[in-house]
Amino acid sequence: MERVILIKYGELTTKKGNRNFFVKTLYENIRHKLQKYHVNIVKEPARMFIEFDESELEEILETINHIFGIHMYHVAYKVPTDLSVIKEEVIKILKNENFKTFKVETKRSDKSFPIKSLEMNPLLGGEILKTIKDVAVDVHDPDLLLHLEIRPHFSYIYTNAYHGLGGYPVGTQPRGMLMLSGGIDSPVAGYLALKRGIKLDAVYFEAIPHTSIEARNKVLDLAKKLVNYTDEIVVHIVPFTKIQETIYKESNPAYCITIMRRMMYRIMERLALKRKAKAIINGESIGQVASQTLNSMAVINEVTSMPVIRPVACLDKLEIIELAKAIDTYDISILPFEDCCTIFVPKHPVINPSLEECLKIEKRFDFKKLIDETLDEIKTIKISDLQETEQKYQELL
Questions:
Q1: What's the burial of 69, exposed, middle or buried (CB within 10 Å: 0-12/13-18/19+)?
Q2: What pLDDT, on a 0 to 100 scale, did the predictor assign at position 393?
Q3: DSSP assignment, residue 377?
Q4: pLDDT-based confidence at 391, cuts 50/70/90?
Q5: Is 84 in the same domain as 183?
Q6: Domain total for the chain?
Q7: 301: containing domain
Q8: DSSP string covering 61-109
Q9: 347-359 tens-digit pLDDT
Q10: Are residues 129 and 259 in the same domain?
Q11: pLDDT tens for each residue of 238-258
Q12: Which of 99, 129, 163 is the last residue in one of the domains?
């Protein structure tokens, strides 16, 4: 019997008039991710089917586990839609299964098939009881759940179910600009943004020599982890040293972080316009640090009219850490290389900053000129999921 991977869309089925766009984007994403394997992908409005080489199944399933937009998937047996064939193949399949109790669930998509779903369940169940010894039906908590999907020409039989990542296929939303630091929170924010279909660029602010090449490489390694869930991420490395040193020279120490974040948002907005992005995304969590109180966020946000999305805003640190471990970014994030946000933190940063005070401080230096100069010096790296080279990142700059 031929086996196929049966993809279920889940949330995509609620899209009504836009459904074809979402399904097509998912198809293209799967096709891209599986291009090095021997597969044939068949796209239908309610299902997707992947024909595969059995020797590659394990690697293909691992790849599918990193694709957003898939609600659930199954490795299913494909058989002709013929009652006698279905009965025969079900028995062959179950003879290789270890179970004492079972339940049959049928979904009849082909309404021309003469037997209804509720009639098919006991019919198959009776055949199983008659043929396989020492088993019983349990409709509440069976050891084995046998699924049958009856479709035109072919039907699909499976006893397994794997949960996909859910969400929307990446690319169904416009681009967003992720403020990617070396910490725990921002990679998780990037992952959650990808889950909602947002294509990502990443922006890293560095302050050489106060920060190190290792801190930069740490961020690029985090971007490589995130690219497992998309096709590519363009990383913009912003030389922030001159702006940061000027802030600490001209500002009230308690306001340094607030002014620094306002400068970052101005740069983010300019980059977003250049890249045709529609939002700024970051890993801020409400109340976690001084610059992430609601009052601080309001004052910092004042410099941009662009939406600022904070996917982890209402998660506590332990929840964020759990997600970071699940997406394999945690061990990189805790490496001891500080970014420009942590290396200059004052002893007593203001938690309720005044907008008037910020404007007063910013009049002390020509920040517009500094931002223009900084934008001219940004360096960019494109990280692709197809890259196999381990060439040092600094050699690419």
A1: buried
A2: 54
A3: T
A4: low
A5: no
A6: 2
A7: 171-396
A8: HHHHTT-TT--EEEEEEEEES-HHHHHHHHHHHHTTS--SEEEEEEEE-
A9: 788 899 999 999 9
A10: no
A11: 999 999 999 999 998 999 999
A12: 163
